[in-house]
Fold this sequence. Notes:
ten-stranded mixed beta sheet; 22 strands; single chain
Amino acid sequence: MNFSITQNGKELIEEKYNWDENTKTLSTNEDNLVLDFSEYDEVIFNTGDYCTFKTGNYCTFKTGNYCTFDIGDYCTFKTGNYCTFDTGNNCTFKTGNYCTFDTGFDCTFETGSDCTFDTSYNCTFTCKEKCVCIRRDIYEVIEIPENIRRDIYEIIEIPENKTIILNEYGIKGYTHQKRKIVIDSKEIEMSEESYQNLKNSFK
């Protein structure tokens, strides 16, 4: 299998990156890279800023800011700010601010502020302020003048600093993540609000 790494339109010289074929790990401090590993799964990337990735599935990314991803399923990200993601399903994201996501289902997001999510069902979000989710599996068709049909998708304003989980396929809305505590060897679930009230009662 082959891969390519270019920088500003030219092939990056091997002295500027390290590729471990055994662990499928790429390490570099360089910015402004285009990395095409589309024939590879399970690659680990450590890069700088302004990078663009094209990969297979089950990849792990630790990058800087302003990165763009066009990748498969079951991937894990730890990135900076201003990133754009076009991924498959079952991905986990831990990012900074101003990120845009276009993903499948069963994804987990832990982000900063001003993020927009274009997702499907069963996704989990923990965000700061000004984050919005558009659910592509929830929509209705309306007729507007001149016989034009328009799909209206569900738009969810994600609560600040609270973890929510989108409902199952085709079911509007979301639930708040439940907290779990153990009392007398029994596991008890409670809402975040109840958990915080209980926690504060011990202060």
